[in-house]
Specification:
By secondary structure, this protein is of the alpha/beta class. It contains 12 helices and 12 strands. A 12-stranded mixed sheet has the order 7-8-9-6-5-4-3-2-1-10-11-12, with helices on one face. Helix 1 packs across helix 9 and helix 4 packs parallel to helix 6 (168-195). The structure holds iron/sulfur cluster. Iron/sulfur cluster binds at residues 297, 301-303, 306, 308, 320-322, 355-358, 388.
Length: 424
């Protein structure tokens, strides 16, 4: 099903901040998903993402995050996606999930809303047997792991693992070996999650892959094969322009339609479409090999039913992934929490929301984007292709040549840009 604006674009929706517990934005879109970043740090340095290497000042406390989620649920949020940076670097992750339990079930007649699902997007490098089990026991329901290649060289390149010093041949070998080690960790993480009870057949365990034309286009079939063998839904993510920090250029984008077509030539597919408010269009392998998905925020934007709010690790809310500025929520959190003020502020932010960056980009740049193979045809020929983004992350065990843990480039605004790749 493809959602569309129930009302014409630009028609505003004026309601006093406290009058409605479930506000609609200016395009009549409800709030439904909160992406909450727990840390800006990451142990990988994927070139398409380039997350921050350091925490911002004024990181939120557990109590402050709880209040934010509780308030967002009052305003309509039903799904919480925990992101980063790499969220498994955050020590309070399980404590936060446990503390959200009262929001999961409400007494009958309670109108404060229910948090129906808690999901995590991670690179999996820190997902041990124990961590997977403790997350499940805490109440986590879904994990999306990121993996951008099925061989060591591709994984190392896409994860931004630093080349080692030394003669070229040795450098290549070492680089690939480190990629192999990273790949092995992610594959182990998949099995740890499965053993902990995250069932891929129930959509509780998925694989994300960002594909770029000159980075890992050759990994489409190997990644699809890997996901099919392990019973995982593979979600292909178009390379996106997250601010100016990842050197994005249209020529690097492979449209979802092209990616899906290439896989479909090998394993025939039948389309399933995109769920309302979802980011991924999905296909079923005709041979019973499971599901394939694509997130096409460049070639087939889905702003029309976007219901996502993002809050950074230091409490800045963005009503669009690509918004240049956000709203600092800390004045309603510190020094003492102001529940009513926070509810009014978040509600007002959502009611004023007019964002549809990807659609506007698509329209204004259509001519410039035309050279991207298949780009325009995707948007027009298969309107069910919709999408958005997802993850990147960090690996604690990826020392550089000097033995330092995963180093990464210094970041530039927007500070929330890394969240672009943090799962739909
Ligand atoms: S660009 Fe992405 S985050 Fe922004 S409104 Fe469109 S779909 Fe939503």
């Amino acid at each position: 099903m493809l959602c569309r604006y129930p009302r014409p674009l630009g028609r505003s929706h004026s309601v006093s901040p406290m009058a409605s517990p479930a506000p609609l934005d200016r395009h009549h879109r409800p709030l439904g998903v909160l992406r909450l970043s727990l840390t800006a740090r990451c142990n990988l340095a994927c070139p398409y993402c380039l997350p921050d290497g350091q925490e911002p000042a004024g990181l939120l406390s557990l109590a402050e995050r709880l209040l934010l989620v509780e308030t967002a649920v009052q305003l309509g949020v039903h799904t919480l996606r925990l992101t980063g940076g790499e969220p498994l670097l955050h020590g309070d992750l399980e404590a936060l999930i446990r503390a959200l339990a009262p929001l999961r079930q409400r007494p009958q007649g309670d109108r404060r809303g229910v948090l129906r699902q808690i999901a995590l997007t991670t690179n999996g490098t820190l997902l041990s047997v124990e961590r997977a089990r403790s997350l499940r026991q805490a109440g986590l329901e879904r994990i999306t792991l990121s993996l951008d290649g099925a061989d060591g060289a591709s994984v190392a390149r896409m994860a931004g693992l630093a080349p080692s010093a030394g003669p070229p041949a040795a450098e290549d070998d070492t680089h690939s070996a480190r990629g192999e080690a990273l790949l092995a960790r992610v594959l182990a993480a998949i099995e740890h999650a499965r053993a902990a009870g995250f069932d891929p057949a129930a959509g509780e365990l998925k694989l994300n892959a960002v594909i770029t034309r000159h980075g890992n286009a050759d990994q489409l079939l190997p990644l699809a094969a890997l996901a099919r063998q392990r019973g995982l839904e593979l979600r292909l993510i178009e390379y996106m322009d997250v601010g100016n920090r990842n050197g994005w250029e249209p020529a690097q984008v492979i449209a979802a339609a092209e990616m899906v077509a290439r896989i479909g030539e090998r394993w025939p597919l039948e389309p399933l479409g995109r769920d309302c408010h979802g980011t991924a269009s999905r296909w079923r392998y005709r041979d019973g090999g499971g599901l394939l998905a694509a997130i096409a925020s460049i070639s087939a934007p889905f702003c029309g039913d976007c219901n996502r709010l993002r809050i950074t690790a230091d409490g800045v809310a963005y009503s669009c992934l690509f918004a240049a500025s956000g709203t600092d929520l800390r004045p309603w959190l510190r020094p003492r929490p102001d529940r009513d003020g926070l509810l009014a502020a978040l509600g007002s932010l959502w009611r004023q929301r007019d964002d549809r960056y990807s659609e506007e980009r698509s329209r204004s740049a259509e001519a410039a984007m035309a050279p991207i193979a298949g780009l325009v045809s995707v948007a027009t020929a298969d309107s069910r292709l919709t999408a958005e983004p997802q993850a990147t992350a960090d690996i604690e065990a990826a020392p550089d040549a000097n033995g330092n843990p995963g180093s990464m480039a210094a970041a530039s605004p927007p500070a929330h840009a890394e969240m672009a790749y943090l799962g739909g």
